């Protein structure tokens, strides 16, 4: 039985260059090499050094996980380690993440990996997860699945069409920046979930809008949030590079007052 040939570094680099919409000349200038040499690398006529592979990957903004794949395709060992978050060498990362999560109380915050699986969260995230079917929270719980599944948060989101379009747009942009079949499969699953509300094709702001809010039905009223996403600024390790902390803030005074009350809503 024939087996597929292993990927070659030249075609992989060419695919990344085209994804970034750069010409060979533009990339060669950025990487301080000649367009002729880059052409030879892409066609397999020249074998790049490991430093050249990494230099090209840096200019193409290739994720660390994919940089390791490029190195392997060129015949070199991976340069970037990948450690479980509970590994001893990740103590500083875990500590930093917990400081951010706990410091964000009483507002919800969560940490996700590259596939949007929930890695950690603060206690206030129960405001969201408390409305979700327990089976959706089995590990690995996926933040986008939890948000948009009909047994998840979706029935409680007052602006589901708008929020769903926002999340799917973020996911499509993430897919566009990398080569990840896992994210494509997740996108196809999420798109198939039912939604009876209209979904805007473009996030066009109204007169007073400055962000897309999450409007959550709660206790006969609504809570409104906006979110920010934080990542590690200079990661040199795959797991660390792929972590993202999403922090939710009250979008109006009523929501802030509700969450700062004597007993945070569950």
TrEMBL record:
Q: Where is the HTH cro/C1-type domain?
A: 13-67
Task: Note the CDD domains from the entry.
Answer: HTH_XRE
Instruction: Please give the Pfam families that the UniProt record associates with this protein.
Output: HTH_3, MLTR_LBD
Q: Species name for this entry?
A: Streptomyces reniochalinae
Protein name, as recorded = XRE family transcriptional regulator
Instruction: Tell me the domain of life.
Output: Bacteria
Please provide, alphabetically and separated by semicolons, the GO molecular function terms listed in this UniProt record. Answer: DNA binding
